[in-house]
Amino acid sequence: MKEEVLGKYPFLRRGLSQYLGEGVSLYTFLTENEYFVKKASELLLSIINGEDVPFPVDIDERVRLYIVTKIMLTYIRDYFISARYAIRERKVIYETFEKETDERIIKMVSSELGIDLEKSGERYAIPLNAFLRNSVVFNDKELRLCNQELKGGRVIASKHVLSKIVREAFYRRYVGEVNDLVEFPQEVEDFLRPYVGEIVARSQEIRQERAYLGPLNESSFPPCLKEIIDEMKKGVNVSHAGRFFLVTFLHRIGLPNDEIMKYFGDVPDFAEKITRYQIEHITGTGRGREYSVPSCQTLSSLGLCYKDRDPLCSSGKIKHPLSYYRARNLRNRPVGDNSPVK
């Protein structure tokens, strides 16, 4: 396989064998590429800190860093860390594939990710099961099945839509692979341990910082969330975006999925199996990526902002629903009271 192709799509297995070689132990490969082990450690630390770091331009460096990083993430086996990295990789691969014009490469990359592609004029015929498996992206109208053309059990899609399906297929496979339980030889564990210690420690710090929002306190919910909950209790068919916001918010403040499910009990089209699947997908517990809570600006663009109902929101000081919750939660709890406010 040409190196330039592998440089653009470093997950292609036929090309990776060129770098891994045959009969070479994992320990030997890592020790021979210790420079890239150090680079991978630095890269992961930067990414979990939220830095937008570029990947190497040099093809050899790009591929070797991809391989070593994947080995390191498989050893760490931490969803938070692997998801942060996979989101960055996913973005780059999507942008690259979106510009791809070589039909042979388009088909090869799609096939690698489990998408049996056929050309249909200027568009592409994607098997329905592959489309459904990789189109569960909330708030993306372009990937909704109702907006697609169906023909012979396939979705007839544009190159743009195909690029999004490829993007999601890569993400799902990557996160699944690096979080599988793999036993490493002791010598490999001893070699990698010094390089991953700071990454794991920083990951734990970030999660602790994000997690401290106090006990559940519905009286401190922002007006946008209260409106959605009130409508659901009345049996109103709340919008897709509203449900997405509800799940991300409740997940972020620490509610387990079973408790989040209870908020959907009065929804007219409630179906337990589907609702549970969607909640698991949004929260990342279904081996998808963990979605962030939408900002006030995003909620406003979706028609879900009710800031005029609340003086704190209308003051202009609040830019995110979680900031509102944190401020109100501290204000509404008596000093020294650590129990939930019901």
Description:
The protein is mainly α. Helices cover about 60% and strands about 5% of the residues. The protein has helices at about 5-10, 15-20, 25-30, 35-50, 60-75, 80-100, 105-110, 130-135, 160-180, 185-210, 225-235, 240-250, 255-260, 270-285, 295-300, 310-315, 320-330; strands at about 120, 125, 150, 155. Strand 3 (about 150) and strand 4 form a beta hairpin. The radius of gyration is 23 Å and the shape is globular. The chain starts with a helix and ends in a 10-residue tail after the last helix.
The biggest beta sheet is recorded as:
4 strands, antiparallel
Q: For the residues shown, what is the average pLDDT?
A: 86
Shape: globular
Order of helices and strands: HHHHHHHEEHEEHHHHHHHHH
| Beta-strand content bin | under 5%
Low-confidence stretches: 333-342
Descriptive keywords:
342 residues; mainly alpha; 17 helices
Chart the SSEs and their pairings:
Blueprint (H helix, E strand, L loop, with lengths): L2 H6 L4 H8 L5 H7 L1 H15 L10 H18 L2 H21 L3 H10 L5 E3 L2 E5 H7 L14 E3 L2 E4 L1 H20 L7 H26 L11 H11 L6 H13 L4 H6 L9 H12 L12 H6 L9 H4 L6 H12 L10
Antiparallel strand pairs: 1-2, 2-4, 3-4
Q: What's a concise summary of this model?
A:
59% of the residues lie in helices and 4% in strands.
